[in-house]
Write a structure and sequence with these properties.
By secondary structure, the protein is α/β, with parallel strands linked by helices. It is built from 13 helices and twelve strands. The radius of gyration is 20 Å and the shape is elongated. Bound molecules: zinc ion.
Length: about 280
């Protein structure tokens, strides 16, 4: 049996798996009694019959290739703090081939934990979540940024579901540049229709769940740097709306967007709502 230096207990801990007396709830199947056991630096689920070492565990839980799993364990890969700094400084990281991630979104998986967040906590519409091809694993929701055609991947963002304060809530896959979110909606937009501009993907989900057509533009500079075609489509659309986040960055984004999009109509959130997602959720409670 081949052995390597990765400690399965440490790796399991980073994956959010809680081991007690060498047993844990299996993160792969819908486990209610701890079916996964840990012995000799390996795991085995006695219910779904999977087994392996630390690398295999990361591969299965994070849906990664062997190389990506090692990358993740080494602290360079997705879902770690390191890749956020790499993403915010794209010139220093090597460009990545996003095709290798297509499998994640071809057959999206919504884990129990992700379902709890998206449907119970955020009250999002199931059709919206499925149309956006959101996928998930035990710790993260994977958010694909598709091009206008609805299948070319431009970027991938992760939403962390855990509560480890050292892990960023949102981060882009290493080497990905931020892009406009939900571009495919532009292809369906009629002249007279309203288009809402959200600050982030999660506000965009709420707007879409409320029946609006929406995109997300995380920063105003993105409009200047994105492909001219998209910018023209947005700039020439007459009915643009925004609910700025109720904080300084939200107002700043609105003001910057307004300079580039004079037709942009601002709507205020009711008092006590920090962003549209919050407003939407309160309306559902
Ligand atoms: Zn299992």
């Amino acid at each position: 049996m081949k052995q390597h230096r990765y400690d399965i207990h440490q790796v399991a801990h980073r994956l959010g798996i809680r081991i007690q007396r060498n047993k844990a709830l299996c993160p792969i199947h819908n486990d209610h009694r701890p079916s996964m056991t840990f012995r000799n630096n390996r795991f085995r689920c006695w219910s779904c019959s999977i087994s392996g070492d630390a690398i295999d565990l990361v591969r299965m839980v994070m849906k990664l290739s062997y190389i990506e799993a090692i990358d993740w364990i080494e602290g360079n890969g997705i879902g770690t703090c390191n890749h956020l700094s790499a993403a915010s400084n794209p010139t220093t990281s090597k460009p990545i081939n996003l095709d290798q991630y297509s499998y994640l979104f071809a057959n999206p998986i919504i884990t129990n934990r992700a379902a709890g967040f998206l449907f119970d906590q955020r009250r999002l519409d199931k059709t919206v979540v499925s149309d956006l091809h959101l996928s998930s694993n035990h710790t993260h929701i994977a958010i694909p940024y598709f091009d206008l055609d609805g299948h070319t991947l431009l970027s991938i963002q992760w939403r962390y579901l855990g509560c480890d304060p050292s892990v960023p809530r949102f981060s882009f896959v290493r080497g990905c540049r931020p892009a406009i979110y939900n571009l495919p909606v532009l292809a369906t937009l009629q002249n007279a229709e309203d288009l809402y501009i959200a600050e982030g993907s999660s506000d965009c989900w709420a707007l879409l769940s409320a029946g609006m057509k929406a995109i997300a533009i995380p920063s105003a500079t993105l409009l200047k740097t994105c492909q001219a075609g998209y910018m023209d489509m947005i700039r020439h659309h007459r009915h643009l709306h925004i609910y700025p986040d109720a904080d300084m960055p939200g107002m700043k984004l609105y003001q910057e967007l307004k300079q580039q999009l004079p037709q942009l109509v601002m709507h205020s959130l009711p008092e006590g709502c920090k962003d549209y997602a919050d407003f939407y959720k309160q309306g559902k409670d």
